[in-house]
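quick one: nicotinamide-adenine-dinucleotide bound model?
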Amino acid sequence: MPGTPQATQLAILGGGPGGYAAAFLAADLGLQVTLIDQEPNPGGVCLYRGCIPSKALLHVAKVLEDARQATNWGVTFAEPTIDVGKLRIWKEGVVRKLTGGLGDLCKRRGVTFVQGRAAFVDATTLIVQTTQGEEQHLTFAQAIVATGSRPTTLPHLTLDSPRLLDSTSALALSDIPQTLLVIGGGYIGLEMGSVYAALGTQVSVVEMTSGLLPGVDRDLVNLLAARLKQSLAAIMLNTTVVAMHAEPNGIRVTFEGSEVQEPQQVFDKVLVAVGRRPNVQGLGLENTRVEITPGGFITVDAQCRTTEPTIYAIGDVAGEPMLAHKASHEGRVAARAIAGHKVAFEPHAIPAVVFTDPEIAWCGLTETQAKQEERAIEVARFPWGASGRATTLDRNDGVTKLILDPSTSRILGVGIAGSGAGELIAEGVLAVEMASLASDLALSLHPHPTLSETLMEAAEVFFGQSTHVYRPQRRRSSAAPRVGLAALDGLEESG
Ligand code: NAD
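yep, here:
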């Protein structure tokens, strides 16, 4: 039986990057906050089983790859020996450090953290089951649902075998298999496939569409695909898995598709990474007026408020893209809205990064999207073959491109493929959010020699005046921004 009812001003279900960002800001704004999550500390999938542990392992993969490539520079290391137990302990230490830090931040801000599961009884009451087995009612003025998402499972891709992995068990790194099939050439498949390939596993990727990372601009993906062809055992496109059977020595997989060469193969392990779906089940939402879209997401408005006025929803559960930084931003919008501020979630550029090698990053309008929407754009590309810094790193396999409005030169989107693209995209986000013109990037001094110069030079390419790319001067339409062009001319004269 539930004990004495408790009360809180703001209850938050889910302690991931959305939930804890909302909790911390709400507390900073003077609200009394209760944050509920099943884990011992805040962090969510991102910190416990996603972004953070995968990036710790991808860092190791990068070090291994760099050490291999060093032979080209006259430095040859011995073949690495990998102590998988120690690697696991290091990765878990990273997670513990960050989640423990979040636990401390909760205490210092006066946020009440409850380890347990919560479900709605009605629009102002939750029933909370703590991990200690207690059950209590918690009334609230407002609640935020930040329950995230979980891996999609497909009936014919389900098998009761420890050899079958999802992103969580793949990150657990119980061993380094000799062979691994990754089903799904998206974010998780390529990031985790890259980790295992660097650790010595023969990794094959099967993707049902005609290319890796569907929806991402092909020029960016092509640079990644070229490198993956060297590090992966096979990339099977236009191919699906139609059956899987556990055998004593592995999982026998049957493939179907126009490009299939070997219809049946046996793999030590199989990782299924075919997408994620929002966590809306078991939350008692049926006891409220919260509406769910046909795609399974909670319907929200620009303040992240659901169709039940006391309940807000943020992050993966509230719609695509399912990215931690989008969740955090929405969390802060919801906290401000609840505190009575006039605020809306309306970013022009949500960055996305695939942490492979090379990394792929983009924000704002993409070429693919512009084509679908039949929007007139101009694309200014700076190939990293012309970058001094990329050459010193022996990583000329990159490109930085700006997607521009041809009539105003406004930067609408940025796409980057190359080593460290994930860090570089932040400048692109600022450019798009600030409605920067090509001249703003071209005229801002960028430190030399750095990869950040590729953004400046991409803007110079737009004007046909890139220092390191020779293109005959283009004639720009009279609608082009006079300030930008005049200033560029001035720069040349004074230069
Ligand atoms: P995804 O949507 O990125 O990729 C799934 C891939 O599987 C797609 O390419 C799809 O065409 C393919 N696919 C689907 N069904 C298939 C089938 N039956 N056979 C073969 N291929 C099939 O999904 P994901 O990789 O599982 O990641 C889920 C989400 O998690 C991402 O969309 C992203 O939002 C998030 N994520 C982000 C990051 C990051 O920001 N770096 C990293 C990991 C995950």
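The pocket of nicotinamide-adenine-dinucleotide is lined by residues 154, 183-189, 191, 206-209, 214, 240-241, 273-276, 321-323, 353-355 (CB under 6 Å).
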